Amino acid sequence: MAGLVFILIIITSFFFLGIVIRTKSIFSGRKGPGIFQPMKDIWRLLRKENVYSQTTSFIFKIAPDIYFASVLIAIMLIPFGNQKGIFSFDGDFVFFAYILAVGKFFSIIGALDTGSSFEGMGASREALYSFLAEPAFFILMGSLALLTGYSSFADIFSGIQFGSYISYAIGILASFVLVLIAMIENSRMPVDDPKTHLELTMIHEVMVLDNSGFDLGLILHATNLKFAMYGALIANFFLTPGREWYYSIPIFIGVQALFAVVVGTLESFIARFRMNHNPQFIFTISSISLLIFFAVLLILGKYF
Amino acid sequence: MVNILLITFAISLIYMGIANRLSTYINILAVQGIILFGVSFIELIQINTINLIFILFETIVFKTLAIPLFLNYVIKKNNIVREAQPYLPDFLSVVIITCFLLGSFILSNIITGVHIRKMFFLVAISALLSGLFIIITRKKIITHIMGYLVIENGVFILSLSAGNKMPMLVNSGITLDIFVSVLVLGVFVNRIGNTFEEMNVDNLTNLKD
Amino acid sequence: MFGYYLIIGFLIGIVSMLNRNCMVRIILLSTFLAVQTAITVYAYFHLNEISSGYFKSDALGVIFLCVLTILSFTTFYHSFIYLKHRKDSSRSQSFYFAALIMLIIVMTCAYLASHLGVMWVFIELTTLSVAVLIYHERTPLSLEATWKYVFICSIGITITFIGIILLSIAIGETEITNFSFNAIPAQLLRVNTSWLKMIFLFMIVGFCTKMGLFPMHTAAIDAHTVAPPPISAFISTTLMNVGFVSIFRTYSIFAHTSILPWMNTILFLCGLISIIVSAAYLLKVTHLKRMSAYSSIEHMGLAAIGIASGGIGYFAAIFHMILHSFVKASVFYQIDQFHRNFKTYMINETGNYFNRNLPGALVFLLILISITAMPPSGLFVTEFWIFKALFTSEHIFIFILVLFFLSIAMYSLAKNFLYILFNQTKDLLPAQEKPNPSETLTQYFLLALVFYLGINPPSGMINLIQEAVKNLL
Q1: Nearest residue to C189 (alpha-carbon basis) of C165, C171, C210, C207
Q2: Structurally, how many domains does chain B consist of?
Q3: Which candidate from C127, C146, C179 shows the least CB-CB separation from B188?
Q4: In this predicted model, what pLDDT tens digit does every residue of C31-67 receive, in sequence order?
Q5: Which of B109, B110, B126, B130 to mutate to test the interface with A (most CBs of A within 10 A)?
Q6: Is residue B93 included in any domain, yes or no?
Q7: For residue range A152-198, what is the model confidence (pLDDT) as tens digits?
Q8: Confidence class of residue A302 from pLDDT cuts 50, 70 and 90?
Q9: What would the pLDDT profile of C210-249 be if each residue is shown by its tens digit?
Q10: What CA–CA distance (Å, rounded) separates B194 from B54?
């Protein structure tokens, strides 16, 4: 049963971006592609051969694989309601954050390895934004850990449902923060526009300019997986323990679909920020999670 | 539930730090009015009906409708540029407002021996500080009024945490005062708009030694 | 009785706003003065009587109510002269007098309020009604000053309100808290110290805007500069008295708690820094009204120090405020004449006032004697008492500092006044108009009052002041 959530996330990741794109097309009044179109694109890429620049070293070659693998490992840590994920240990949310950071690190040095000035610029931006978004995640998870008294994903999520309204309220606020973190980590709309065609304004896209074929397919699919992973984290706030799988799985799927629709809606209605507005936006998320942290402290009556 | 509303209120303060259009400020003020309505409704449901109606009237009619509409009118009438024009970069504003939150959290924990609801205290003090901060760091005169309104909202939260101990008469006097002072300030903003080309604080530096 | 006063007063105010006829206006204003006198006399003879629930004619309030009533007579008179010379439209005159009546009514209420919240409401109302008066001249400068005054006072008074809320949190958790000034001290005894300190700080900061003490003194200065001179006379005297009364009452309710020494330190700081700031600005000031405003700040600082040093200082501070009101009012009445003579307030563009307007020049000379507290004036006595209180409470260092900065202020005031009186520059503008000597009578009356009260204070006044401070001793 431990692998159930892993499989669910993998399945979700196949149609996640499709729903986002479909939502956007409906809002903009277009017919739009089918839900599996992004997957078809990725499948096409995966069958192609890699082309490597002569200036690159082995780092450029292994970076996409490590990136993809790091996302997969992170997904294995995600629990499903009160069921543990494939791995589970105390403090695994720290491991979760840093295994993602390892992947990000490799994608950054892979970009730097090409020696292209565009990719260097993109890499520096990506590093800055991840750096700013990291406290938000940690403070959020820290306050949840404080609220429940546990320090692993599975225990936190099974402890959080003690039935009072406060857990749901905190859950809603936490989902809000997590949605924003997911948008930043995946370089989506208010921070970065994946559809931009000008290298100077790109962040994530410009980092993968030199990747092609199979590697590019991996990188693109890693984004899908990350979305599904954050969706699974959010879904965990609303999975009540003790419910049978035939309740849990529809809730899980429903939350994921809702998340995708929310992402699509946000992307349809929010314009992309100017580049110099991004840091403050990301810092705002950290402030909000700090606020949640204080609230948890005050609610629990724990003072220093 | 009250706690969640208060957190939302604090989030709106942070958001005010990065908002760069005046209309956003006005919307935030209206949202804050609604939040205050929610908080006061939950808090005061068991006190007598007249007081309750009075406070609901104050939050919904004054804070959510009348004042935002009035500010909109002032902005339209005077053709005020729609950007807030802070003196500091927004990033610093957010950092400083976060520091205010942190500081008032620490302050609310230092205080002992008095029965006070710390969540109310935290949000109220940080609203007070953020309001003062907005007044100090924004260039426009109309943003000064907005900062003043944020302070007033903080005071409202604080007075909710005290329960309702003022007599009715005093309460209505306080509300009336606040409303009239906003009105008077608005009238003067209009005058300033008629007298000077741009409504910046820089125009108001002629009185000095 | 007090309820009738409020109703009649507000009615007169509204009617005088609508009225455009000059004769009717004079009748209305006389009626109002009669009503104001009546309430003052009534309050004086019914000490400590509670009326309309929230008002009580206690000694402190009655003292300053008397000052207010005396000054309203002279201010109405000088307002008439001022408006006549400005040739204002009947409409703007109506607004002026309506606002002035409102201001007097709300100040009366603020003096006599026996409930903290009620006092707060009326103090806020003084800001709003005086704003109309400050803006009377409708110039960009007056706009700027009014904006600053209203804004800073609103914020200050809001901060005070936070203090009041914290106070209500601190005392009593269940029952309806009694916020009358008599009932609060007993309820404060079980509140802990740091909380009390915080409440006091919040409240004092707000009231400082009204009194013109250090952290919030700037708004009052600008308001003085542009307001019509009769109104400046009011801002500088009765309105600052409102601030003084509120600070004194705040001080009294905390006086029996453990934070008394700390509170004294705060007031010492406010007072001392006010004196230092005013002395520094007096050295470089060029605008006659600003100079008078800074001199007011200096006297407010002295009063605050008087309160802080305790003992005879309480008595001296109240006495000082009374005498200062009379002196400062006559300064501004005379400045109005001065302005009509020179058409400017800038000190360095004037001079030779002795030859141009002898009665007015004599007034300035007497003012110089009074305001710098030279012996025959009453202010000498009160400042002497304040210094005595400083000595008995063993604050020698503060005493030396105060003395030093007072002498600087004294030097600047003397220099500027003597310049106005005797400067013999040839290229002065010819006198624009010769003021009627009878217009100086009010100033002679007020100054004579200052001298008389200092030399031979009537026992009725002494008793009132002693009654006002008896809770503190």
Answers
A1: C171
A2: 1
A3: C146
A4: 999 999 999 999 999 888 887 778 888 899 999 999 9
A5: B109
A6: yes
A7: 888 888 877 655 677 777 888 888 899 989 988 888 878 888 777 78
A8: low
A9: 888 888 888 888 888 889 999 999 989 999 999 999 999 9
A10: 36
Q: What confidence tier does B166 reach under pLDDT thresholds 50, 70, 90? A: low
Report chain C residues whose CB lies below 8 A from the CB of B173: 117-118, 121
The least confident of A240-249, C40-49, C376-385 is A240-249
List chain A residues with CB under 8 Å of B86: none
C97: pLDDT confidence band, cut at 50, 70 and 90?
very high
Scanning every residue of chain C, which has its alpha carbon at the shortest distance from the alpha carbon of B191?
Answer: C143
Q: What is the pLDDT of residue B164?
A: 60
Q: Is residue B208 part of a domain?
A: no
Count of domains observed in chain A: 1
Return residues 130-169 of C near B (CB < 8 Å).
131, 135, 140-141, 143-148, 150-151, 154-155, 158-159, 161-162, 165-166, 168-169
pLDDT at A215: 93
**Phi, then psi, of A85 in degrees rounded to 5:** -75, -170
CA distance A157 to A240: 9
Cα distance between residue C175 and residue C40, in whole Å:
35
Average pLDDT, integer, range C179-185: 79
Nearest to B114 among C145, C151, C169 (CB): C169
Two structure tokens written together for C257: 């708690």
Would you say residue B176 lies in a domain? yes
pLDDT band of residue C105 (cuts 50, 70, 90) is very high
First to last CA, chain C: 32
A95 within some domain: yes
Judged by CB atoms within 8 Å, which residues 191-230 of C form the interface with B? 191-192, 194-195, 198, 222, 225-226
Question: Checking DSSP bridges between strand C55-56 and strand C50-51, what pairing results, if any?
Answer: antiparallel
From the list B129, B146, B126, the residue with the least C-alpha distance to B86 is B146
In the predicted structure, residue A20 carries a pLDDT above the cut 80: yes
**B162: which chain C residues are within 8 Å (Cβ-Cβ)?**
165, 168-169
Report, as an integer, the average pLDDT of A79-95: 85
Q: Give C291-317 pLDDT, tens digit per residue.
A: 999 999 999 999 999 999 988 899 999
Q: CA C124, CA C158: separation in Å to the nearest integer?
A: 9
CA distance C222 to chain B (A): 7
Average pLDDT over chain A reads: 87
Q: What length is written for chain C?
A: 473
Q: Which domain holds residue A110?
A: 4-299
Q: Does C281 reach chain B within 8 Å, measured CB to CB?
A: yes
Write down the pLDDT at residue A243: 65
* Residue ranges covered by each domain of chain C: 1-258, 280-473
Closest CB from B1, B4, B122 relative to A294 = B122
A to B CB pairs, distance under 8 Å: 62
Whether residue A280 and residue B89 make contact (CB cut-off 8 A), yes or no, is yes
In a domain, A18, yes or no: yes
Strands (E) across C101-186 are located at: none
B136 Cβ under 8 Å from any chain C Cβ: no
Give the DSSP letter of residue C237.
I
Residue A184 phi/psi, 5° resolution? -75, -45
- Count of pairs with CB atoms under 8 A, one residue in B, one in C: 115
Of C154, C165, C168, the CB nearest to B148: C154
Nearest to A79 by CA among A89, A69, A67, A65: A89
Residue A86 located in a structural domain: yes
Which residue range(s) make up the domain with B188?
2-196
B7 in reach of chain A (CB within 8 A):
yes
Rounded to whole angstroms, the Cα distance separating C105 from C114 reads 16
Structural domain contains residue B204: no
Instruction: Kindly list the residues from chain B whose CB atom is less than 8 angstroms away from the CB atom of residue A283.
Output: 91, 94-95, 98
